[in-house]
Amino acid sequence: MLRKQITDNYSVSDQISLANVETLSQLGITLIICNRPDNEEEGQLTFAEVKALAKEKNINAVHIPFSGGQMQPSDVEAFKAVIKDGDNIHAYCRTGNRSSVIWQAATETSSKAPSDDMTFDVVIVGAGTAGISTAASLLKRKPDLSICLIDPAANHFYQPGWTLVGGGVFKAESTRRNMSDVIPKGTKWLKESVKTFHPNDNKVTLENGHHIGYQYLVVAAGIKLNWDAIEGLSETLGRNGVTSNYRYDLAPYTWELSQNLKSGKAIFTQPPMPIKCAGAPQKAMYLSCDHWFKQDMLNNIDVSFYNAGGVLFGVSEYVPALQSYIEKYQITTNFNHNLVKVDGPNKRAYFAAKDENGQPTVVEAEFDMLHVCPPQSAPDFIRNSPLVDDAGWVNVDKETLQHTTFNNIWSLGDVANTPNAKTMAAVRKQAPVVAQNIADTIQGRKVRAIYDGYGSCPLTVERGKIVLAEFGYGGTLMPTFPNWLNNGTKATRLAWILKEDLLPPFYWHGMLKGYEWFVSPKMRK
User: What range(s) does the Rhodanese domain occupy (predicted)?
Assistant: First the structure.
């Protein structure tokens, strides 16, 4: 049981056991609420079993079940009816998320309903690639829409460029613009943070207490990089040889380390999925190795790749090309090894793994250079909202990108629970789908535009060559170019030219301006 204290008298957790009921009794819990339907998964303890033991311990137990992302107003009312002042309450579901969401909904709806400070046709939460592209695409279709973008960031970044910053190809400054310069003309930008959502009232609440009303909502809040989830990492980032291309300020340090390392041990890590741009940890490794190879230093450097997953790449067709570079650069691969601790001053990394008997163990490794990819999740204000599934991602139809419960809400980009690669290329395909479906809904037409799961991962295996992985749902290969022009399963010069020379201006002057070159949405018949 992973117990999280929400208030002084309310806690939540994942699925509890009978032994946990005894523990909750010792903690003074007076009411247990189960927000999980029985038989949700095989072997799940039934509510009746929990209730029987709770009764023996003089604990009340109430069942208010609902599936992830399917909470109804009646569930909230039932929850409000059973919580009383003086109770010490513990609620549980599969992960604890549903129990957090219903508490938030019950305590907020019990207060005075929020009033609007402003109301817009469309409110977009997040002014990253997904949010701005969607706003621009909407305005191409309906220039008269009132659109509000909400994001506290002062800068907008072309994050795919950070791989090339870490490889000494780009300067970091070329990947940054002032946010005010990329917000589409005709939209309102609120430089604020969203606190919570009121989907039944068509409102969002900002951290400053103001309330923003909408007819249609787009959630494009991105992803949280959880640096603090790895013990000791935050304290040593940017020094002691510890770096990451996942941060604007650290990507130049990656290149500095690669240039200065003449001998020793270099480690590159990848956490459990999902993460944004799943190929980025390998890209950093290949570009560093290419530099060492060309400087005739690779024989003096021991390179290791520690991957929490079990394979080199999730789409098997691209593995042979990548494996050939693993062999060329003499990289030692360690699968099912998850970075859990970094001791920067002593240059030690620690990985959770299993021994030959399948028992949990911790593997210690020395390093002179450590490139880290942090674990990732939806932002906290999203995970604690009524919009998400059990894993904390916004719950949408994977084709239409429309919310599964609230028909006037859409989500795209890293924060959505669509089972595709979280890449800029995916957003490039998703934004027109969301824009078209909202435009159709406004005009009373059926939602018709569909997203096919397309994502692209340009794997920079050496300076001047890229394996251009392009695939959709289920790992289906979806190459943009014919095989005679660019064989995506091989490293090619053309793919490098695409990434280095063509994609950055395409991004700043095309995608963020609402130009949908090569990505017109497919339509259901």
Answer: 60-141
The CATH homologous superfamily to which domain 227-376 belongs is FAD/NAD(P)-binding domain (3.50.50.60)
* Strand-pair category, 147-150 with 338-343: unpaired
Q: Rounded mean pLDDT of the chain? A: 93
Q: What is the mean pLDDT of residues 243-251?
A: 97
The pair phi, psi for residue 333, each rounded to 5°, is -100, 135
Sheet holding 348-354, edge to edge: 338-343, 348-354, 360-366
CATH class of 4-109: alpha beta
Q: What are phi and psi of 93, to 5 degrees?
A: -150, -150
> Which residue type occupies 398?
K
For residue 403, which amino acid is it?
Answer: H
Rounded distance between C-alpha atoms, residue 259 and residue 239, angstroms = 15
CATH architecture of 119-223+378-523: 3-Layer(bba) Sandwich (3.50)
Identify whether the C-beta of residue 373 lies closer than 8 Å to the C-beta of residue 395. no
Q: Which two tokens stand for residue 186?
A: 């005709």
Catalytic machinery residues: 277, 457
Query: Is residue 415 a contact partner of residue 221, using CB atoms and an 8 Å limit?
Result: yes
Distance CA 246, CA 312 (A): 19
Beta bridge pairs of residue 302: 265
Three-state DSSP state, 416: strand
Residue 68 near residue 389, CB atoms below 8 Å: yes
Q: Where are the domains of the chain?
A: 4-109, 119-223+378-523, 227-376
Q: Is the pLDDT of residue 110 over 50?
A: no
Q: At what angle do helices 319-328 and 280-294 cross, to 10 degrees?
A: 40
**Helix, strand or coil, per DSSP, at residue 378:** coil
Confidence of residue 116 (pLDDT cuts 50, 70, 90): low
Cis amide linkage into residue 345, ω under 30° from 0: no
CA dist 44 and 37 (Å) reads: 10
